[in-house]
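Structure, all two chains, one model.
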Amino acid sequence: MTNKNHNWASQRDEKNLRMANATSIINNKFVRTENAKELLETLIQPNDRVVLEGDNQKQASFLSETLASVDCARIHDLHMIMSSVSRPEHLDIFENGIATKLDFSFAGPQSNRISKMISSGILKIGDIHTYLELYARLFVDLTPNVVLVAADKADKQGNLYTGYNTEETPVIIESAAFKNGIVIVQVSEIVDKLPRVDIPSDWVDIIIQSDKPYQLEPLFTRDPQNITELQILMGMMAIRGIYEKHHVQSVNHGIGFNTAAIELLLPTYGNQLGLKGKIVPYWEVNPTPTLIPAIENGWIKSIHSFGGEVGMEQYISARPDVFFVGKDGTMRSNRAYGQMAGQYALDMFVGSTLQIDKYGNSSTVTNGRLSGFGGAPNMGSNPTGRRHSSTAWQSLKPTDNPLAKGQKLVVQIVETYNSAKKPVFVEHLDAEKVQKEANLENVPIMIYSEDTTHIVTEEGIAYLYKTNSMTERQEAIEAIAGVTPLGLRSNAKKLNQLRNKGIVALPEDLKVNRLAAKRSLLAAKNMEDLVKWSKGLYNPPAKFRSWS
Amino acid sequence: MTNKNHNWASQRDEKNLRMANATSIINNKFVRTENAKELLETLIQPNDRVVLEGDNQKQASFLSETLASVDCARIHDLHMIMSSVSRPEHLDIFENGIATKLDFSFAGPQSNRISKMISSGILKIGDIHTYLELYARLFVDLTPNVVLVAADKADKQGNLYTGYNTEETPVIIESAAFKNGIVIVQVSEIVDKLPRVDIPSDWVDIIIQSDKPYQLEPLFTRDPQNITELQILMGMMAIRGIYEKHHVQSVNHGIGFNTAAIELLLPTYGNQLGLKGKIVPYWEVNPTPTLIPAIENGWIKSIHSFGGEVGMEQYISARPDVFFVGKDGTMRSNRAYGQMAGQYALDMFVGSTLQIDKYGNSSTVTNGRLSGFGGAPNMGSNPTGRRHSSTAWQSLKPTDNPLAKGQKLVVQIVETYNSAKKPVFVEHLDAEKVQKEANLENVPIMIYSEDTTHIVTEEGIAYLYKTNSMTERQEAIEAIAGVTPLGLRSNAKKLNQLRNKGIVALPEDLKVNRLAAKRSLLAAKNMEDLVKWSKGLYNPPAKFRSWS
């Protein structure tokens, strides 16, 4: 047995000691803005595990700037845990000698710099995760010492209102508040009465008003102006050859113009096909503005969201039958529950990618660019623990095995050449090289071939789930890979064999009229149209406003 | 576009109307115990989707009794959504004509009756889920009209304290509170000041004091008295041949004497092997009393839990370095986050089952007994969306594919004959028959062969992940299936081939001394020993107390 005097509350004692050292600047949980640096230097200790909130949209920017400025003689060797490495100072923290190790999910805007810092040894990667598995580890082997998060408002008692962008704040706070971690929150405003309480005061240790509101990116906004006719053609094929064919009821769309095109085709092309009420009433997706016409046209019963979207606030508040909205009239998002739903409760994931290899593995990690994973691998995977059935899921069930079950539809929509005129279909993913350069345990594949059930290009659809060998799978991919080197391996005979087996479908097989793939088919052709559809409730950020 | 006068807040209006109809019995959220039936008859409407809280441990028993007593002329055709069908009145609700459709996860105690009610057509199954996917659907296509949940205490403002058994209350409430659902909470007590706020008042519509505290089952308590020497032998093999071999750091144990044996062997056999500090510091598991010796002996860094465990309250409060405990000194559990961690953040799941077929598929659904799934398929599956690496996970990576990744260890520990002297290893699962009887879409398999990486019996360990064909997999299973009909297909020659390939290991291959597999090797031999290890802090429920 253990020593009788073993202290089983050592973490709590440590927390209390740190808090006691900061009493001179803490007034009943509240700390003045100008004392932020002193606060962090007092409450954080070398080698701490520190969670810094920042998914791809919402950033605890005041706290990250403050952390990047602390004295590295006092605070060093931190192990940072961050959903997203998005802001310059996220990496300054490492360059400034404050942190050395990083566990993260996504590094879009900083993906070049992070690659260089890994090679130069300034930054050591713990691992790269999907959002959901990173949250999961906060309760197992990455329990934090300190968490730095952001909320809209606090009341005088210390309760928090996170507003539309609740996102990952609750899951991060819960992991610390109940395991002796210190919860430090930046708020944009301190008020007498909150619209509603999102996080109870009991879970919060420190509240500090930020110098300016936290950073928030309109990441899911796509201007319909930029949707091309090829994307419209692919969208039409997807609607006929996938959404309609499999009776898809619930879906997540990735970020991109390909899926934006589909959203804008539902109230036009979808209506022509008589599909309203028959497909995709249920969505797990951020409140992307290109969904407004489909919502207004009565296509959508429910949208649960990971986060909010800048400019959509008033529109969301006015559509509580569709969005998740509190009694106070403002949205509640939740990134952890959203990813959970995205994995387990949906018929289909539809995304895009930068490269697809000959087997059907895909990745957005390309040379010199370690972009991480975000949520796509989670939603773009077939959860083998799923036990409930749906028509779409069952439609992919193999017929040769009485013990078989269905499968999630995981769809990649890509043009065969990307916007930089490089082939999307490649012999080997750049990710294979990146694995070696960054010394990663595995090739950073975003979505594996085994999980990918359909690929849509401007050529046609490959129904990969129907192939019964890796050779046939490769042939199906080649058949829709256009004039990329992979595509050139296909020929008319092979193509027709695959079409006859139903493994590949061309637009004519789907009765999709190529000539109808015009921009005039989009329910909204530009941002102004979206505002009109919203009856003036959608308020696009300035950078998306090209009209007066 | 839609009608200008379309009401986009119809769900909210409907909720407000129902609440207005009940104003005479609602006093600032609070309703008197004796008005419970009238309340439900006013707030619930025919065809509603109603979530009734009740996982395998914690039951909103006052509200379920009340619901079973309502007038079926007023309330009928409800669609019930319940994690667990555990109490008689859960099925009375259907027999009494109040509900017709059921989506659920687990039906342990009611598994016989539920089978009969399906055959007789009284009850129509929506589907059977794992816990996590049922929670996921609450945000997508099963958003509830009304939720009936349980908490320990409410304060006068309507904030809730859920105590040790937070479990699934937050995820259920969130799904309703932000989608115009009505949140009705039974509390055991109304107080001036809560120990802490678990759920903010803003998320709650109605609080009603129950006539007695909610039902709570000590489901995870196993009396060491009942652990057999065969189970000890299997535990020793598992520790050497799996935990040690794969350097397993994080684990979930299912309910059962097999895993209880392992827990009680860590401080004895594990110490003899010098494994303390080297294996399983991180756990996602309910606070099972048989973990007390391993905790006291310094094996365990962290335990996050789905729920509490009756009798463990004081012990947990005194061990905040290990358990998740709030500032108030009481535990916070969370079933949704626990299942999320169980799926994505663990190296290994270890469970037991009632039947395993020749391929390695297993199920606890047996003839006449539709037990459902609970959490096992979720934790006992290989999440293909996982991207982070660990030593154990990587140790299962196939060596013949440069694009391969690791795999979760999914271990079944079973004696070849179960306690009813029936063979566990069978040609066909009873579940195949149950599929037909209950008209289920798929065979209710608990854990599929493809996810099962190891099987341990009293004969030895089959390393299924090493097999490279279904034939070899079947041979490996036969080799450890003892004298069951399946086991008799094996012979000495095949066994030795498999041992030479490292696909099967016998105790001697693992250097496990069969003669040492004695009850004296258990760190605690009975409940009294567990209480002693806990320094008197563990307080077993009466039914587990055989001493004074």
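The domain at 224-396+405-528 of chain A is CATH 3.40.1080.10 (Glutaconate Coenzyme A-transferase).
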